[in-house]
Amino acid sequence: MKTIRIFVGSPGDVAEERHQVKTAIDAIQKRYHEHARIIPLFWEELALLSTSSFQEGMHERIYVDVRIDIAVFIIWSRLGMPLGPAAERWGMPPETTGTECEFELMSAAFRKSGGEYPRILTFRRTDQEGYEKMLIEAFHKGGEKEVYQQREKVEAFFENHFKHKEGFFGRAYKRYKNPVDFAQHLVTCLDQLVQDILGIEFPVVK
User: What's the pTM value of the predicted model, to 2 decimals?
Assistant: First the structure.
């Protein structure tokens, strides 16, 4: 029986979506239980040792010890905090955030495998109303500057990784408005990718 590992990368502002990922993977596992063992990988569930940083521990557990078949990235209003010196270990500037580092490492693994794995899915939440509500709450606490800065990092991330210099999009990503919308997109995408990996054909889940 084949093992399919699904890594989930995201900052802390999409907790509900992360829960939706677990639900979606459970559903996909039931659908293909005779063909595959599907394992979700969340950093908070990994056995990370106190002798290294979070990102260093994740690197050992995820990028060295096991093969990742599918990587799911979920981004909304923030990218997280800079890794500092830990990022330099992988040739990245110290201002690189954990989510950016994970995306870069997964992209590097994809290139190294000759375009075989991991299959990378990126979802971007476009909930402007929710963002404005968050901004108002931050304003009352004196933290609106950080919210603005994080939003700028998100915009730069998509400009750098998904657009060509000419302005058109060179890489695909899925837009969604809310966690319910996200769940519907995710199940369909995971179902298709699992079928591709297994080399079988079922009716696509919608």
Answer: 0.87
